[in-house]
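Could you join me in thinking about how sequence relates to backbone shape in a protein? We need material for that, and I hope you will provide a protein of your own picking. Label the sequence line and the structure token line clearly, so we can match residues to local backbone shapes. Would you write everything just below, so we can both look at the same thing?
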Amino acid sequence: MTILARDHHSILYPSKNTVDEMWEKFRSTMMDGRFIPKRTRRPVNSKKNLQPFTADLRRLVRRKHRLWNRWITTKNDNVFDEYKIVRNKVKRETVKIVQQEQDKISRDCESNPKRFWRYVNRKKN
């Protein structure tokens, strides 16, 4: 039986404890280090975070989302045309950034093979 399970009764159902005493008991139980994770977990959607984003690309993506939401609410054709233009810009910029990364990896392949194989294995999975 864990400490938390053993002590939860005295924390939840106090006999003559004040609120401050119960808080101190709870805080000392939680903060003694046994309930703090020892290592961090990698996010489930970590593959999405591997793509390099520049500040300009983030700005374009936010603009694209705003235009999409505006078009959904208004159904204005001019807004949709503007959305399509920004959408295509985002696509072009994304492709350009990925190609630049691939070019850099291919140029540094002989001097840094570890980076090359890390990229290959990342794409393989």
User: Anything to note?
Assistant: The chain has two domains: 1-36, 50-124. The mean pLDDT is 82.
